[in-house]
Amino acid sequence: MRTILVINPKGGCGKTTISTNLASYYAVWDVKTALADYDTQRSSLDWLDQRPDTVNPIQGIAGRGSQIKTEPGTQRLIIDAPARTEIKHLQLLAELSQVILIPVLPSPIDIRAASVFIAELLMHPKIVRSHQIAVLANRVREYTLIYQNLEKFLSQQLKIPFITHLRDSQNYIRAAAGGIGIFEMAPYQVAADIEQWRPLINWIEKKK
């Protein structure tokens, strides 16, 4: 089972959006998938509660501690980490995963918070050696100065890969309202969004 941890201590950076859409991607391709929600707000589990019977199921798990019980045959597990994650909690969640994704928003506050978190993460060589770790820019408006600053920070100042950016799209809001991901929407509606996900999916599936 391949496990992907979506984490950033800064709240509101889109961890749940990344987690739910990633889970839906695997579900579309008939990959047996589980989604563990460690956030007390239960946003990922609330999304699963809205999920219609017409799409492939995803197992929902209320994350607690270091044990996650998935159904037999589960191939992908997505972990939606809570905000304000302390480094000890990060180590616990990292032990459950092979891939770590860090979404970052294009704002000065988020850039500074991400810089501090990533610096702390890189101080743990065991995690760095044993995991695929990458950042992605989320809710991006490409031609703004703040995004250009974020892209420069992610691509030039970090020691981990910057994989892709996801645009600020209403499609994510529409999908979330219906308990689905953009991969389960009409292709003509989401073609531009899906294209931005391809580098991320390819990177995740590339074993370290």
What is the CA-atom radius of gyration, in angstroms? 16 Å
In the sheet with the most strands, the strands line up as: 3-2-4-1-5-6-7
Taking the sheet with the most strands, its summary is: 7 strands, parallel
Strand content: 15-25%
User: Which architecture name does CATH use?
Assistant: 3-Layer(aba) Sandwich
CATH topology: Rossmann fold
- What top-tier CATH class fits best? Alpha Beta
The chain-level structural class is alpha/beta
The percentage helix is: 40-55%
Shape: globular
Structure summary, number of beta strands: 7
Number of helices: 8
What do the pLDDT scores average to? 87
Sketch the topology as an H/E string, one letter per element. EHEHEEHEHHEHEHH
Low-pLDDT residue intervals, each spanning 5 or more residues: none
Fold and architecture overview:
With 208 residues, the chain is α/β, with parallel strands linked by helices. The protein has one domain: Rossmann fold (3-Layer(aba) Sandwich), CATH 3.40.50.300. The protein is 43% helix and 19% strand. Strands 3-2-4-1-5-6-7 form a seven-stranded parallel sheet, sandwiched between helices. The model has no long low-confidence stretch (mean pLDDT 87).
SSE order and pairing:
Blueprint: E1 2-6, H1 15-28, E2 33-37, H2 43-49, E3 59-62, E4 76-80, H3 87-95, E5 99-104, H4 108-122, H5 125-130, E6 132-140, H6 145-156, E7 162-167, H7 170-177, H8 187-205
Parallel strand pairs: 1-4, 1-5, 2-3, 2-4, 5-6, 6-7
